């Protein structure tokens, strides 16, 4: 074979020209696919298919160019072309020109993509990488005829999620975030995956009929919408926990997650053998999960306790129910302070002890003990030690880093506490309550712009949250001494959903006081109903107290005294039931100052500070100290009032009542107005450069 003649023949038959043209056009098509397909949400696999087809087509194009010629009469087999009838030189130059244009377009698109990916904006905000071994278990659909079985379907989904969350090699999103996708409407799985930051989603349904159950589950790649695995289980109802374990282990296998012997053992252990107890537990857990979002959180928590008590009565070995029961009692005792009594604390301790007897070394036991030490005893060091142990067995549980964040906040480590809450939000990205706590953390250190940004994230999840809209407006009041933003929210609520005004009535009342608007204050108090007219954490001022403030604004001293006497009678009952609870005694001192019982008021305020030292509890200790500044102001001792105000401002926790807006506008501080020292303090808190 004459090699030189072979290459001459390749040139004569335009094979070189065809190869170059094919390569250029292929490159152009690949650039179009990689840059245009994502805009239309076309799956990534289609880009790979285009590349594969173009590679396969290359030898076919070369063979075609060897066997056929382009002539003025069209395409003909090479053997049929007469000499001189092949493609004209002019036409050849046109093809070369078109090839050059295609090459220029492809090069331009390539350079555009290169510049865009290296631009400062993209470097400063890189897209977070979604781990391959990440999953969210979406709420299972209840296909049972009895709608009451919806709680059972929630329980099945929650147990699978709990099993998966114990696998350290997986990233698993918490139930609070996934419950927002409970709607029966069609789900945009790719969008949900992006919102939750996971590569995979587990969907399913539960159908319960008599003693039979059907569970359908399917694993989906959220990046491509591709179905990875699916299975339907038709079993006896008693096998429901075995089904959950099988699904969890299969998912781990599909995601190629390493499963340790301890993790496998934990997954295979059923929560209870009593399905009725499991139903009760599932209902209670749903109430507890939603308590932070509910106006009726106190009765909801108490109802959950009733359900859990019944569950452990049916099955005294129901470990998970005891853990939830301990948390519910601690919530009432330490988180809301609505039942800060020795009896409530004893109930929490009994539940923790029961859980400890059943599984002394379980990670959930360490978490339950940590929550008891934190909420119940304020033993921060002990709680942190328990959380550290629990983290080893609950790698995907946001509660561990969340509670760690709360503890660090109460120890005065505000920045470290905030960082832990931000980490909790990574595991629970759609947790409305966590985002609100993040907003509060920013507010505690005076970063109101960041607070409002966090609330905006929360509103993107629950846009119709009246409470969050209310707090957002209120933060502008504290930040900039401007009542217009919160009052605009109030007007919007009154116009669109007046029945919900009770949520924002205390803000309405506070703004009316700031604006010295008695008519608005009167309307706001009607909307307050039997709730507090103002509250900040554990400091709650009852409605009668608000009536006294309103009467004093209108200079109706008789009405004011009657209202403050009624407020004192109510508060005294709370103090008698909780004699060692500093925040309740602090409020009593404030009321006595309003009644002119100055010596008693100061004694009560000082005793409240002694019961709630800042060193022991930064949050509550700071508030008691700061509200005592109002008590001192109302007693007429200006020197003491200014000393307490300065001490309150030095406290590690920034109270809303000592914000720029509160000090500048609220009548609480009127006795100090005009004093140069007070005015200097107010001016020092004014926002600077929009911050």
Written overview of the protein:
It is a single chain. 64% of the residues lie in helices and 8% in strands. The model is unreliable at 114-126 (pLDDT under 50). Helix 28 (598-611) packs antiparallel against helix 29 (618-634). Strands 3, 4, 5, 6, 7 and 8 form a 6-stranded mixed beta sheet that branches. A hairpin with a 2-residue loop joins strand 9 (534-536) and strand 10 (539-541). The chain has 691 residues and is α/β, with parallel strands linked by helices. The longest helix has 29 residues, at 89-117.
Q: Mean of residue pLDDT?
A: 85
Strand tally is 10
Radius of gyration: 34 Å
What is the approximate shape? globular
Largest sheet: 6 strands, mixed
**If helices are DSSP runs of H or I spanning 4 or more residues, what is the number of helices?**
32
Q: What is the straight-line distance between the termini?
A: 83 Å
Helix content: 55-70%
- Which structural class matches the secondary elements? alpha/beta
Give a short synopsis of this structure.
This protein has 691 residues and is α/β, with parallel strands linked by helices. Helix content is 64%, strand content 8%.
